[in-house]
Amino acid sequence: MFDEKDVILEAKHVTKRFLEEDGRELTACNDINLKFYKGKTLGLVGESGCGKSSFMKLLVWMERPSEGEIIFNGKDVSHIKGSELHKMRQHIQMVFQDPTTSFNPKMKIKEIVCEPLLNYGRISGREVDKEARRLLEMVELPGDFADRYPHNMSGGQRQRVAIARALALEPEIIIMDEATSALDVSVQKSIIELITKLQREKDITIGFICHDLGFIQSFAHQVAVMYLGNIVEIMPGEDISEKATHPYSKALLGSVFDTKMDFSKKIEVVKGEPPSPLDVPAGCPFRDRCECCEGICAEEKPQLREIEPGHLISCHCMH
Fold first, then answer.
1. To 10 degrees, the CA torsion angle through 206, 208, 213, 217?
2. Among 28-32, 216-220, 291-295, which range has the highest average pLDDT?
3. Which domain, by its residues, includes 9?
4. Is the domain of 246 the same as that of 227?
5. Residue 263 confidence class, pLDDT cut points 50, 70, 90
6. Separation CA 197–CA 214 (nearest Å)
7. Rounded to whole angstroms, how far apart are CA atoms 109 and 141?
8. Residues 72/78/82/87 CA torsion (nearest 10 deg)
9. In a domain? residue 318
């Protein structure tokens, strides 16, 4: 299991609320407690709209928590500002789902990947060409791609450029928001192989947002399953198909379509639609879609409890 002394980033009772125009509050993240370990990957999985991207944005200061603490290397960094925030951003970088939305189309690739280094005074303008080639070759792209523009590259190549830019400042943590979901399956595989290779070489901690529980188990060391802003299960990354216990986690696994799957078995789907985050039912947030629902589920929200080392579940039905 993970050693507690290796915790590099921790969310403690983190809640994020957004105020709607009609005055109601939307709780995107509800009392989240998660730990990120040095050199390991935490996969955060859930349906669209469950709050996983909102949570990860809190970790890179794109949003501020309404409640709770975000602890980085033992220090609460939830509400840092100004020069302290500028300095801290070097340590935690982010890779987005579609890199073209975060690239200036008028900038050459060498300017894109070296922009963070110039912003922090790590290199001079004379060193851009050399440094850009080094970073591109690190993500297995030809060095002469430095003089290209983003529109002259494929989706997979642009994502490698995004990874190179995120790595330029040699951060301790990289957050990846659906970083492979827009790519072809074969390209996804090569990007994940690159990420895991760089992680081993540089001892980087990775937070990876994904909606496919079957996909994330191929490379994550730990997986957290999120539903309507709540963490419902945390488990080791290996053997998820055997260890997943929460009814929602099982439903996510059962709905995965894969060419290697047993086609004699029925493809399961999660019944119904998730309720509006503005109208989350009392008790267990998953109760209206759960076939195991009991009376207590409507009355009391289950709390995360450890059922075996490193495996926590939030469910009344799983005794």
1. -20
2. 28-32
3. 4-91+171-313
4. yes
5. very low
6. 20
7. 11
8. 10
9. no
pLDDT tens digit string along 126-183? 999 999 999 999 999 999 999 999 999 988 899 999 999 999 999 999 999 887 776 7
| Residue-wise pLDDT tens digits, 6-21 | 999 999 999 999 998 8
Domain edge (last residue) among 135, 151, 169: 169
| 13 lies in the same domain as 117 | no
Into how many domains does the chain fold?
2
Is 219 part of a structural domain of the chain?
Answer: yes
Residue 79: both structure tokens together: 């509400």
User: What CATH number is associated with residue 36?
Assistant: 3.40.50.300
Same-domain pairing of 165 and 229 = no
Please give the full DSSP string across the chain, using - where no structure is assigned: ---GGGEEEEEEEEEEEEE-TTS-EEEEEEEEEEEEETT-EEEEE--TTSSHHHHHHHHTTSS--SEEEEEETTEE-TT--HHHHHHHTTTEEEE-S-GGGGS-TTS-HHHHHHHHHHHTTSS-GGGHHHHHHHHHHHTT--GGGGGS-GGGS-HHHHHHHHHHHHHTT--SEEEEESTTTTS-HHHHHHHHHHHHHHHHHHT-EEEEEES-HHHHTTT-SEEEEEETTEEEEEEESTTHHHH--SHHHHHHHHT---TTS-TTSPPP---S-PPPTTSPPSS-TTGGG-TT--GGGGTS----EEEETTEEE--SS--
pLDDT given for residue 259 in this prediction: 45
